[in-house]
């Protein structure tokens, strides 16, 4: 039998030692004196050692002050009634007033049946409080524990900016015992399990409590970063060797060329990978993560060319993952970095029926109007709509051998000459090279490859990281309205 920490043990495991301070007052008793419910409450308090199904308070996490809401399943299955909901809402509202990140650790069967509809609609009240916290630009980190079901999972348990879960935890909308009682047959095995939710992009990690502490510390180092702390050195130098368009394209396609995952590994710190769209979709060809480049905290979303080649081209699900990253950056006011490296979007029945064109359009619309500072990095291949979807930004960087084109040059050659043999000439004529893109106002800075990123992966990635930090530091000095106006003007007059 798996041993799982109760609320107090979890708090002691996750927070800095000795830093916990309770915010809880004795709960108002919702039960009629002498009723069977009153007897149940009294028995639960004696048996569990808790006065309600949740604890709230504050502590330090890696030296950072945080608010905490933690469920206790041993108290009436962690069910939420009026008193528990009021305790939760009061804590969330206090966290919002005091501008504290909030850590939530649900473990609940859902609504307290003894209180009926009144308890049921408490989930609305809790959700409103969470949304107000998020609207204030404060991070909400969730750690789902065994079990989390019902209204708790369908409200505040599913609203985290970052969400992890206990290994093997039962997590789902309707508990399997209730399902079987209602339908007469068991719910399919392995569906309502933390690992399956991770596989389907509904949560970001499956980790034990000790590891949850480290994930939360890393995530909050980015999510709670102060923009004024970003400091960048002098502008990176551009020392570019002339290169023909077809040579650049050939180099960008090398299997050993570093991509977005190498960039995170070699040039970033405090990296917290996020998984999926949060809406039941995941796509390995699109990387979403929190990270730092030097002093600059960012939300990064980037195309992983190698995973696209090995599994499938980028499809609509990948772009929905990207839009999750855009929303995260906008809500918390974090700089957004997009990384383009794709041979093109998926060309398939499922991609068309999944709304690929609409997702490209929505990515473009969100990026153009995003409140957060944005930097795009053309890192390698930049073919077609999949590349365009991540392009609009305040500043656009381009690796020396990266390129951007409406189609791969072979496709353009086939359209114009009914043959792929003219791809080199088409690439040259279409001005797809980094230096051409800069001359035409599409790109702002070219990052040198000395002589090629594949030969110097660490030095190249560090060079890119330095350039990203420099650009972000400059953007953070601008007023948001001025930054957006400049971005809109840039694309309004491009090519005009």
Q: Any overview of this molecule?
A:
Strands 1-2-3-4-5-7-9 form a seven-stranded mixed sheet, with helices on both faces. Strands 10-11-12-13-14-15-16 form a seven-stranded mixed sheet, with helices on both faces. Strands 6-8 form a two-stranded parallel ribbon. Helix content is 42%, strand content 17%. It is an alpha/beta fold and 496 residues long. The N and C termini lie far apart (69 Å). The protein contains 21 helices and 16 strands. The mean pLDDT is 94. Helix 11 crosses helix 20 (457-476) and helix 13 (316-332) packs parallel to helix 15.
Secondary structure blueprint with pairings:
Layout (H helix, E strand, L loop, with lengths): L6 H8 L6 E2 L13 H13 L5 E8 L2 E8 L10 H16 L4 E4 L10 H5 L1 H14 L4 E5 L3 E2 H4 L8 E4 L5 E2 L3 H8 L10 H6 L5 E2 L2 H15 L21 H8 L7 H8 L1 E6 L11 E8 L2 E8 L1 H6 L5 H17 L3 E7 L6 H5 L2 H14 L4 E9 L1 H5 L6 E5 L9 H9 L5 H7 L4 H6 L5 E3 L9 H20 L3 H14 L3
Parallel strand pairs: 3-4, 4-5, 5-7, 6-8, 7-9, 12-13, 13-14, 14-15, 15-16
Antiparallel strand pairs: 1-2, 2-3, 10-11, 11-12
Helix pairs in contact: 3-5, 11-20, 13-15, 17-18
| SS strand fraction | 15-25%
Radius of gyration: 25 Å
The largest sheet, given as strand count, sense and whether it forms a barrel, is: 7 strands, mixed
| Estimated structural class | alpha/beta
């Amino acid at each position: 039998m798996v041993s799982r920490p109760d609320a107090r043990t979890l708090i002691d495991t996750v927070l800095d030692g000795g830093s916990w301070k309770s915010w809880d007052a004795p709960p108002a008793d919702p039960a009629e004196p002498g009723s069977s419910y009153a007897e149940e409450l009294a028995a639960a308090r004696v048996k569990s050692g808790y006065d309600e199904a949740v604890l709230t308070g504050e502590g330090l996490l890696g030296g950072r002050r945080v608010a905490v809401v933690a469920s206790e399943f041993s108290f009436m299955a962690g069910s939420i009634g009026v008193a528990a909901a009021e305790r939760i809402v009061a804590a969330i509202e206090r966290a919002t007033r005091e501008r504290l990140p909030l850590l939530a650790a649900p473990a609940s069967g859902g609504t307290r049946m003894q209180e009926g509809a009144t308890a049921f609609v408490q989930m609305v009240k809790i959700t409103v409080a969470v949304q107000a916290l998020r609207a204030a630009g404060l991070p909400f980190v969730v750690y789902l524990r065994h079990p989390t079901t019902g209204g708790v999972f369908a409200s505040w348990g599913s609203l985290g900016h970052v969400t992890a879960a206990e290994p093997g935890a039962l997590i789902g909308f309707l508990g399997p015992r209730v399902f079987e009682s209602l339908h007469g047959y068991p719910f399919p095995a392995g569906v309502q399990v933390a690992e399956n939710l991770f596989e389907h992009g509904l949560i970001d990690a499956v980790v034990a409590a000790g590891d949850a502490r480290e994930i939360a510390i890393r995530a909050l180092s980015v999510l709670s970063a102060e923009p004024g702390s970003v400091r960048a050195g002098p502008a990176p130098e551009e020392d570019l060797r002339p290169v023909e368009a077809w040579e650049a394209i050939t180099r960008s396609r090398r299997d050993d060329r570093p991509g977005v995952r190498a960039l995170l590994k070699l040039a970033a710190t405090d990296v917290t990978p996020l998984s999926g769209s949060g809406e039941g979709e995941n796509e390995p060809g699109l990387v979403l993560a929190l990270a730092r480049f030097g002093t600059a905290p960012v939300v990064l979303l980037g195309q992983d060319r190698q995973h696209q080649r090995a599994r499938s081209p980028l499809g609509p699900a990948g772009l929905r993952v990207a839009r999750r990253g855009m929303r995260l950056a906008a809500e918390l006011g974090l700089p957004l970095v997009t990384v383009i490296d794709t041979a093109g979007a998926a060309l398939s029945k499922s991609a068309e029926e999944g709304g690929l064109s609409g997702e490209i359009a929505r990515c473009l619309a969100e990026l153009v109007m995003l409140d957060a500072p944005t930097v795009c990095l053309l890192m390698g291949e930049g073919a077609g709509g999949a590349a365009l979807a991540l392009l609009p930004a305040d500043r656009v960087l381009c690796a020396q051998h990266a390129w951007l084109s409406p189609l791969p040059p072979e496709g353009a050659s086939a359209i114009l000459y009914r043959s792929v043999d003219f791809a080199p000439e088409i690439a040259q004529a279409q001005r797809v090279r980094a230096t051409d893109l800069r001359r035409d106002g599409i790109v702002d800075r070219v990052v040198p490859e000395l002589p090629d990123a594949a030969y110097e992966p660490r030095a190249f990635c560090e060079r890119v990281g330095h350039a990203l930090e420099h650009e972000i530091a400059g953007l953070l000095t601008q007023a948001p309205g001025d930054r957006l106006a400049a971005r809109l003007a840039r694309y309004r007059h491009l090519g005009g």
